[in-house]
Request: fold
Amino acid sequence: MAINSNGVMHVARVFLPDMLKQGHGHVVNIASIAGIITNVNMAVYVASKWACIGFSESLRLELEQEKGEFHVTTVTPSYIDTGMFKGVSAPLLFPLVKPEEMVKQIIDGVKKDKVFVRAPDMVNVVPFLKGVLPTRAFDFVANILGVTKSMDTFKGRPKEEMMPEKSIKKVK
Reply:
């Protein structure tokens, strides 16, 4: 929660005063489709991404009331093949997204002042389906697509890859 929700808020608070002074700026927050689709074995992660999306949307509306050229882009991908979700079973119609492709889409989204950047393409349908289907019907569709079972084979990154000293050595 501290990184996924509080982190985006603290970073925005650092940069917003200067953005407002200069009269323009663009905030990009990395959320997840998990902020829209609930999932088994991900309750805290899902909550943190809901918070990120809610904050981003409210910030976008607030900045649109300011004089100037301000934008907020919220990135809501499915699983990105970075190793963080190692072992995850990508749901049907939602293949793992390559990091390089996600970066290209984010840059393109910023250039076009998109409100949301979503990947893979099928993720664009999710908010609509969630909005029109009754909750249990949406849950049924998510289950059929394998969303609710996607974490069953999750392994994640080995702990040694997550240790700060290992990360620092890789950067050098």
Q: What stands out?
A: The beta strands are 24-30, 69-75, 116-117. The chain has one domain: 2-171. The chain has a mean pLDDT of 85. DSSP finds seven helices and three strands in the chain.
